[in-house]
Automatic annotation (TrEMBL):
It comes from Populus tomentosa. Keywords: Leucine-rich repeat, Membrane, Repeat, Signal, Transmembrane, Transmembrane helix. The lineage of its organism: Eukaryota, Viridiplantae, Streptophyta, Embryophyta, Tracheophyta. Residues 1-19 form the signal peptide. This is Uncharacterized protein. It comes from the Eukaryota. The chain crosses the membrane at residues 55-77.
Length: 112
């Protein structure tokens, strides 16, 4: 809770010292003339997003590749985990196969 208070106090301090706050008890006037609007730079690329998407895609691809390589490495090194992983995948495939077969059977009975 103390960290949150410090962050709030710091935000207020920054706003007061940069002149973003106005009105009593501050000395800054809140009139329309006193507020200067900064011009928005003309961006030719149309960068409207919060994140640079090119950097996001590159970093996502690199992280995904690293995770896949690490999982493959761990499964290669540890035979117990490797067997458990393949048993899990086999159970998942069987479950999906039974679900599709049961759904197809219900669908074929529905059409008659």
């Amino acid at each position: 809770m103390a960290v949150f208070r410090l962050i709030c106090l710091y935000a207020i301090f920054v706003n007061v010292t940069t002149g973003n706050l106005c009105g009593p008890p501050l000395r800054n006037n809140c009139s329309e003339e006193a507020v200067s609007s900064q011009p928005v730079p003309n961006d030719e690329q149309g960068d409207d997003g919060f994140i640079d998407m090119e950097f996001f895609y590159i970093s996502f691809g690199v992280c995904y590749t690293i995770v896949v390589i690490m999982i493959a490495t761990v499964l290669y090194i540890n035979p117990y985990w490797r067997r458990r992983w393949f048993y899990f995948i086999e159970d998942y495939i069987d479950t999906c196969r039974y679900f599709v077969a049961a759904s197809f059977r219900k669908f074929s009975n529905f059409r008659r």
